[in-house]
TrEMBL record:
GO molecular function: 4 iron, 4 sulfur cluster binding; ATP binding; DNA binding; DNA helicase activity; hydrolase activity, acting on acid anhydrides, in phosphorus-containing anhydrides; metal ion binding
Keywords attached to this entry: 4Fe-4S, ATP-binding, DNA damage, DNA repair, DNA-binding, Helicase, Hydrolase, Iron, Iron-sulfur, Isomerase, Metal-binding, Nucleotide-binding
Family to which this protein belongs: Belongs to the helicase family. DinG subfamily.
Protein name (record): ATP-dependent DNA helicase
Statement: the UniProt record of this protein carries the keyword DNA repair: yes
Length: 778
């Protein structure tokens, strides 16, 4: 795998050399025209690997796979691996897998493939002293396994001239990148901590992150809220970049608030000096938030921002390098000024940024952009994951898939006639599958765990995917949204099914409102243990730091996330004193589901009494919106003089900001919120802005068939009793500690936390609470 881009030791002339992958060089110089993302069937990663293996098996003994090639042109070194070289025939091959008609392949793709092959040809001729070479683009249809081979002969002189032309076009950019890398690394060597000193615990965290980066290890760090974890992890990783030749830092978070903290901290950590030494900081934004024309398709015939995208990309890319920070607003403004799509411009800029801020899925998901680029470009990267207690549930979602029978029924009414047969076969297989809900060895119900993937149904689904793909390949301009949506969901399901194992379970559930003979179900392939999927992601990074205020017990996270055996685990001592926070347990209250109605008078009285003794701003957390509304209604009736404001369902970002705006230093009242929601973590309200919190729940997940099945599966995987803790206890207490952590943010803060449930008196619960808390009975 080529390591690119990178700054190599200085050339004899003193000019730094620059190493670039063949793919990157060609993507930079060979693409032109429109951005065209019209859907065309694409092979899975596994199908691509199988296609390459198929070609290799058909070749003779003298055929060499993955032939490494490199060459230097002035200050530029070009590296890559050609798919195959047959020395006997004198043929160099580039293998590409495809589905459907090859004629429907976008011209941009074919041009890029040919450019890569011809660069490899130039490098090979120079290395072996060949006067000419036979070049073969080998397209393999993964369905028929047939090869389409496009052959041309080219002289070494012609190929070398083309390579020099490409290198010449890339040279100015390469010189700029090499100079930036050199200046950046020098500035990071001299980078000073941005504040007068470290907070208590912050230095220990920073030292651990730096040591992990130097040793190429993973770090699992629990650090209390309020010590400056974001700066405390970014600063040492930036300092390690020049020492460990780290190309990129990926700062990832589960929520928008975490992204904002990363961007603010990176702005504080910008090295002083010349503009060329500044860190290029890029914010990646979800497609639905960045799209300017959601009613248009992503190709030049529909969207004006896709038309001529690659023709205008170079100017926008160059202008982006001069931005102080490539955040969402800056990238959007720049993109629109150049007539480009902001979302896809940001994806292009990810190749050239030093630090990328985004959501977890950009590294950990099955289709992760940053992971794919790292693998392709051979980058050495450092990864930071903030609020890492969220990663288990997020990863389960990334590696789960579901298909709806209702969606299939709707599709059958609008599908083209050629697909009616395959969809009907899938429907019949689904009907047989639904009989599992009435299995004689189980009580009738709405939901069942199946013993394994249903083979007949899966076979029908695989055939349906193949048939839809073939039809779409033959009708590329006929777009049916229901068909495309079902097809993409089905592809996702099939791809996950290829890796199905004990770490996942298959379940069948009746869809809401579905009854009678035409009832519909949803089949879900549900990840239980994300470790098998995440292990390669940890291995692909030079160093990974997962940090949060709530990672107790660490063994829970190590096992479920699949962290390496040599992962460093640390708990940063708290800078806070027990005297700063009064923690009281209302042992006489139960917030269990069956006791909710009876709990209202006691909760209301305790909250009012506490507030009158400590007037100011408080947050009250509840297990659900319904429970929140019940208590808030009762509270307002009993104490109309105490101001109350409530979190609503699906609040927009401006509405969330307005909710937090109520917490002013001289404010008075109680904000009602949902535990685990937008206001329970990642919210900073220091000093008098927040002086107390009420938590009317233990935070446990609802006991339902799904969670009980997860518990049973984890018991089998991890050991008896581990499932209950992993599904219920540990995630619940993490939410509680996160919510309580909103109260004490600085060494000078004072506040109260009232835990309103009798189960807080149990030893098994208290051992998961922060050790510095001094718990009293309310």
């Amino acid at each position: 795998m080529p390591h690119a881009p990178d700054t190599a030791p200085a050339a004899p002339s003193g000019t730094p050399t620059y190493t670039v992958a063949v793919r990157t060089l060609c993507a930079f110089t060979a693409r032109a025209g429109d951005l065209d993302l019209r859907f065309t069937p694409a092979p899975t990663a596994l199908e691509g690997q199988e296609g390459h293996a198929l070609v290799a098996a058909r070749r003779g003994a003298g055929w060499q796979a993955e032939r490494p090639l490199s060459g230097t042109l002035g200050a530029l070194t070009v590296r890559g691996r050609a798919d195959g070289w047959d020395a006997t025939r004198g043929r160099l091959e580039e293998i590409k897998t495809h589905k459907g008609r090859l004629d429907d392949q976008p011209a941009n793709h074919r041009a890029l493939h040919r450019a890569q092959l011809r660069v490899y040809g130039a490098l090979l001729c120079a290395e072996l002293g060949l006067p000419e070479v036979e070049l073969a683009l080998v397209y393999v249809d993964v369905a028929s396994q047939q090869e389409t081979v496009i052959i041309e002969r080219a002289s070494a002189a012609t190929l070398q001239a083309e390579l020099e032309e490409r290198a010449g076009r890339f040279a100015a950019w390469a010189a700029q990148e090499a100079a930036h890398r050199s200046a950046r690394d020098a500035a990071l060597h001299a980078l000073a901590f941005p504040h007068a000193g470290f907070r208590t615990g912050q230095r220990e965290l920073a030292e651990a992150v730096y040591r992990a980066a130097v040793r190429g290890r993973c770090l699992l760090a629990q650090a209390p809220t309020g010590i400056g974890k974001t700066v405390g992890t970014l600063f040492p990783l930036l300092k390690a970049m020049p020492v460990q030749r780290i190309d990129k830092v990926f700062a990832l978070s589960a929520k928008s608030a975490g992204k904002g903290l990363f961007l603010e901290s990176l702005a504080q950590l910008q090295p002083p000096g010349e503009p060329g030494a500044r860190l290029r900081v890029l914010e990646l934004v979800a497609r639905d938030k960045a799209c300017e024309h959601p009613d248009k398709a992503c190709h030049g015939d529909s969207c004006p921002l896709a038309r001529g995208f690659y023709d205008r990309l170079a100017a926008a890319r160059q202008a982006a390098m001069a931005l102080p920070q490539m955040d969402r607003d800056s990238v959007r403004t720049l993109a629109l000024a150049h007539g480009l799509c902001p979302y896809y411009l940001a994806q292009e800029l990810a190749r050239w940024a030093d630090a990328v801020v985004g959501d977890y899925h950009y590294w950990f998901d099955v289709h992760a952009l940053l992971h794919a680029l790292t693998q392709t470009e051979g980058w050495r990267v450092g990864v930071l994951a903030d609020e890492a207690h969220n990663l288990i549930d997020r990863a389960r979602g990334m590696y789960s898939a579901a298909l709806s029978q209702t969606a299939l029924r709707g599709l059958r009414t609008v599908a083209p006639a050629a697909l009616k047969g395959t969809l009907s076969r899938l429907q019949r297989a689904w009907g047989t599958l639904n009989q599992a809900l009435d299995a004689t060895d189980a009580a009738p119900g709405d939901w069942r765990v199946l013993p394994d993937l249903p083979t007949r149904w899966l076979s029908a689904l695989q055939q349906t995917v193949a048939d839809i793909g073939a039809w779409q390949a033959d009708h590329p301009t006929e777009v049916e949204p229901l068909l495309q949506r079902f097809y993409l969901d089905a592809i996702g399901f099939v791809r996950l099914a290829e890796t199905h194992g004990p770490h996942a379970m298959v379940d069948l559930g009746l869809e809401p409102g579905s009854t009678g003979a035409r009832r519909s179900t949803t089949l879900t392939l549900r990840n239980v243990l994300p470790a098998p999927y995440l292990q390669p992601r940890f291995a692909a990074a030079h160093t990974v730091t997962l940090f949060s205020a709530t990672l107790q017990p660490p063994a829970h996270h190590l096992r479920l996330l699949g962290l390496p055996g040599d992962t460093v685990v640390m708990e940063v001592p708290t800078p806070f004193r027990a005297e700063q926070l009064q923690v009281r347990v209302a042992a006489g209250l139960s917030t269990r589901w069956k006791d909710r109605a009876a709990s209202l008078p006691g909760i209301v009285a305790l909250m009012a009494d506490t507030w009158r003794r400590h007037p100011g701003n408080h947050l009250a957390f509840f297990s659900s919106h319904d429970y929140l509304q019940q208590v808030a209604d009762a509270f307002e009736r009993a104490h109309p003089d105490i101001p109350v404001w409530r979190q609503a369902r699906r609040m927009s970002e401006p509405e969330q900001a307005a909710f937090l705006q109520r917490f002013q230093p001289e404010g008075q009242g109680i904000g009602f919120a949902v535990l685990g929601g937008a206001f329970a973590e990642g919210v900073d309200l220091p000093g008098r802005r927040l002086i107390g919190a009420f938590i009317a729940t233990l935070g446990l997940a609802q006991v339902n068939p799904v969670n009980e099945a997860l518990r049973e599966r984890l018991d089998a995987l991890l050991g008896p009793g581990q499932g209950h803790d992993a599904v219920y206890l540990h995630p619940g207490i993490q939410k509680v500690v996160q919510a309580a952590g909103r109260v004490i943010r600085t060494p000078d803060d004072q506040g109260t936390v009232v835990l309103m449930d009798d189960r807080y008196g149990r030893r098994a619960v208290q051992r998961l609470l922060p050790s510095w808390w001094r718990i009293e009975r309310a």
